[in-house]
UniProtKB/TrEMBL annotation:
Native source organism of the sequence: Bradyrhizobium ontarionense
Pfam families: Peptidase_C14, TPR_11, TPR_16
Leader peptide range in chain numbering: 1-21
Protein name: Caspase family protein
Entries under PANTHER family matching the protein: MUCOSA ASSOCIATED LYMPHOID TISSUE LYMPHOMA TRANSLOCATION PROTEIN 1/PARACASPASE, MUCOSA-ASSOCIATED LYMPHOID TISSUE LYMPHOMA TRANSLOCATION PROTEIN 1
The entry's keywords: Signal, TPR repeat
Length: 554
């Protein structure tokens, strides 16, 4: 979930130069009072700007407060525009802070850090600035710098509940659950009316397996979230959304599915404006859908390489979904994906994973298999998804291709595909590590055909694009997620001339190496693939993992 920024008031007052008594007695206070409702604040500031009697620092003040109004509405593009104009008129610490907070809520963490750096330089030491920069560092997964900034914030403002809370969140991300619990308990002691520390403590209880306490804390957070403190720059509805999602996850882990469905539905009601809330709502939408449809019965599943995944989920073991599609009906068939999938399934089973395997699945079977896996993975500690076969990228989203796909120009091809972002949203959780491995190309099927000396795993060999932005803009930052692609952006993943693709062959050899950290394992795979393909294929990955992850025990 996302966490609140603090508002640093701009200490510049309006001079008594308005053109009328109305602007002096009504517009000024309405525009520059923090508790004024957003629409009234914006309207009052608009009228003052329209008077054209202010300039320099006075006009900067008005733009600043109008940006505050836009921030209350979650309109971050307008926040950035007004804050930028205020900075042009007269740079000030509070304006840099406000613009940085807007960039943060847009998921643009590096730009936010630059603004907070300027804020630090342009005024006296401020616990608020260090707190907010710590949030942005946390957004980039630089938890050491985040904790250092929270330390400074707490030193300057020891009674800031949010700084204690967010330092606890950073400690939790690094696996220090006890240290996180200590900090978050202090945040609750300092401000028992604040909802967000209770949400974070709920996550910790769930990670510790104490679902009763997790539900109790999230329930109190739901109650408190209805009236957030006025001095916290909270995106509209964000705390309410997060409280419902985390209570739902606890209910679901406990097997209380009706209660979970009610919470997921409640999380979808507010309008989400910030990246974190949108990610939480994406998770709520997918999980509500999973709970609202009948689960695939065991006899309906394809054969698996291990015992039932339900047992694995119940005991917190590691789970994997492995799919290999090659027998395509209407597009180029691929000989190797079924063999690739079986090889990876065996390797994962050998190192203790419970594996759900699917070979040559049409869309209905692929959707059913994926949804069944996502239902059961909610209680797993590590979830791996491996896919080999055709893949496409359309309008910035990545899709996996079922065997019954039939492409034609002008058709609604997206509805016939499996959306990888939906899989990511269904797995998104702060208490689980997720690893997605795709031996597929990410091509637009309507682009001009390309020729290649070897068979590729794209459709009509077009232009592959970059990794999904989910990892950088809004996904939860707890246990972490890694997505590994068989090839670099814009390139084709080769199916190969042997029994397995170059990528899957290397992966199956290294994935079971005892004591090999997952990113080191992928480095070995990359080197082997580059050598085997004579530099034609370079595997690539995007990671928000927080620490070392070992698939095979040391």
């Amino acid at each position: 979930m996302r966490h609140s920024f603090l508002l640093l008031p701009l200490l510049v007052t309006l001079l008594a130069q308005p053109a009328s008594a109305q602007s002096r007695s009504q517009l000024g206070p309405l525009c520059t009072t923090e508790t004024t409702p957003a629409d009234q604040m914006i309207a009052a500031c608009n009228k003052i700007i329209a008077l054209k009697v202010f300039s320099g620092g006075q006009l900067a003040t008005i733009y600043f407060w109008r940006a505050v109004g836009w921030n209350k509405k979650g309109d971050y593009a307008h926040v950035v525009a007004d804050a930028t104009e205020a900075l042009r008129l007269q740079p000030a610490q509070a304006i840099y802070n406000l613009r940085g907070s807007a960039y943060y809520d847009k998921g643009e963490y590096e730009i936010a850090i630059a603004d907070f750096n300027d804020a630090v330089k342009s005024g006296p030491p401020s616990g608020t600035i260090f707190h907010n920069r710590g949030n942005a560092y946390r957004g980039t997964s630089d938890y050491a710098k985040a904790i250092a900034d929270y330390d400074q914030a707490i030193k300057l403002t020891p009674k800031s509940a949010l700084s204690w809370q967010n330092r606890g969140i950073a400690k939790e991300a690094l696996g220090d659950l006890d240290g996180a619990l200590t900090d978050i308990n202090e945040a609750i002691r300092l401000d028992p009316a604040l909802a967000s520390p209770l949400i974070n403590r709920s996550v910790i209880w769930r990670a510790k397996g104490n679902l009763e306490r997790a539900i109790a804390d999230a329930s109190e957070a739901v109650r408190l979230a209805q009236n957030p403190p006025a001095n916290v720059m909270t995106p509209p509805g964000s705390v309410v959304i997060a409280a419902h999602v985390h209570r739902a996850l606890a209910h679901e882990a406990k097997g209380e599915f009706d209660a979970a469905k009610a919470d997921y539905a409640a999380a979808l009601k507010p309008t989400a404006s910030d990246a974190g809330s949108k990610a939480n709502q994406a998770t709520a939408k997918v999980r509500l859908s999973l709970l609202s449809e009948p689960a695939v019965q065991p006899q309906q599943r394809a054969e698996t390489a291990a015992p039932s995944s339900t047992a694995a989920a119940a005991t917190g073991q590691r789970m994997a979904l492995v799919i290999g599609n090659g027998a395509y009906t209407h597009v180029q068939p691929l000989p190797n994906p079924p063999r690739d999938a079986r090889a990876i399934a065996r390797s994962l089973h050998d190192i203790g994973f419970t594996v759900v395997e699917g070979i040559d699945l049409d869309r209905a079977a692929m959707q059913a298999k994926t949804r069944d896996f996502l239902r059961e993975a909610t209680r797993a500690q590590v979830a791996v998804v491996f896919y080999a076969g055709h893949g496409v990228q359309i309008d910035g989203r990545n899709y996996l291709v079922p065997t019954d796909i039939a492409l034609s120009a002008g058709s609604d091809v997206v509805t016939a595909l499996v959306d990888m972002d939906q899989i990511l949203a269904g797995l998104d959780d702060e208490v689980r590590t997720n690893i997605l491995i795709l031996d597929a190309c990410r091509n637009n099927p309507f682009a001009a055909p390309a020729t290649t000396a070897e068979t590729g795993r794209g459709l009509a060999g077009a232009t592959g694009l970059a990794a999904p932005t989910s990892l950088g803009t809004g996904a939860t930052s707890g246990a972490g997620t890694l997505i590994a692609f068989a090839t670099a952006p814009g390139k084709v993943a080769l199916d190969g001339v042997g029994d397995n693709s170059p990528f899957s062959a290397a992966l199956s050899r290294h994935i079971g190496t005892p004591g090999l950290e997952v990113q080191q394992m992928l480095t070995r795979v990359r080197a082997e693939v580059v050598s085997a393909t004579k530099n034609k294929q370079v595997p690539w990955s995007n990671s928000s993992l927080l620490g070392e992850v070992y698939l095979a025990s040391k």
